[in-house]
Write a structure and sequence with these properties.
single chain; 200 residues; mainly alpha; 63% helix; 0% strand
Length: 200
């Protein structure tokens, strides 16, 4: 969901097994190479070599280079959270409250790498198709949950698109600013604008 679909930007849980450690190492090496050489200037072969794995191992963990930066495992959680909101609320309010509830439960540890990833994505035009696909997937997940609860399909689609547009805008602007604002502040600012409220 994050600049892209941003839920993909939250820090992973601490690696425990060998597979998790390998995945974490590949991701860390890739981010370092992207920062140094740019996204387009870094190939899968570069990442695999620097991480000490084969390209086949890379693809076992990540379906593509773009997935390193744009990956969204949170759509089902968002849909479930939306389903817990009162059905008498307007569709956009249910979507926003569902996203807010999901965000509060995310295991965010370090924000600096997240900010760097979002900035990298925003600065890489070649990632635009992947960003659109990831964002569209979350919009669909939101809309389908709303429709399941009786919302008109057009209104559900509009609510999903509005929520994701606000999130992408807020997170992209946050990543490109050199200030002390937090990721959560950026997310809540977007959600607060959609709900016309000032508190978090």
């Amino acid at each position: 969901m994050l600049v892209t679909n941003i839920w993909w930007m939250t820090s992973p849980a601490p690696a425990q097994g060998r597979l998790e450690r390998t995945r974490a190492r590949i991701a860390a090496v890739a981010l370092e190479l992207f920062s140094r050489n740019g996204y387009d200037g870094t190939t899968v072969a570069h990442i695999a070599a620097a991480a000490g794995v084969t390209e086949m191992t890379f693809y076992r963990h990540f379906g593509s280079k773009a997935q390193l930066l744009i990956d969204d495992p949170y759509d089902p959680l968002i849909a479930e959270a939306i389903g817990r909101q009162p059905v008498e609320l307007p569709p956009l309010a249910r979507a926003v409250r569902g996203i807010r509830e999901t965000w509060r439960a995310l295991p965010i540890t370090e924000e600096a790498p997240i900010r760097e990833r979002i900035a990298l994505v925003a600065q890489s035009p070649s990632l635009n198709p992947a960003i659109r696909a990831s964002t569209a997937a979350t919009e669909i997940a939101i809309a389908e949950r709303l429709i399941q609860d009786g919302t008109d399909p057009d209104e559900a689609a509009i609510a999903g698109a509005a929520a994701m547009a606000a999130m992408i805008t807020a997170l992209t602007r946050w990543a490109q600013r050199a200030d002390s604002s937090t990721l959560t502040e950026a997310v809540y600012r977007a959600l607060n604008v959609l709900e016309a409220r000032r508190d978090g």
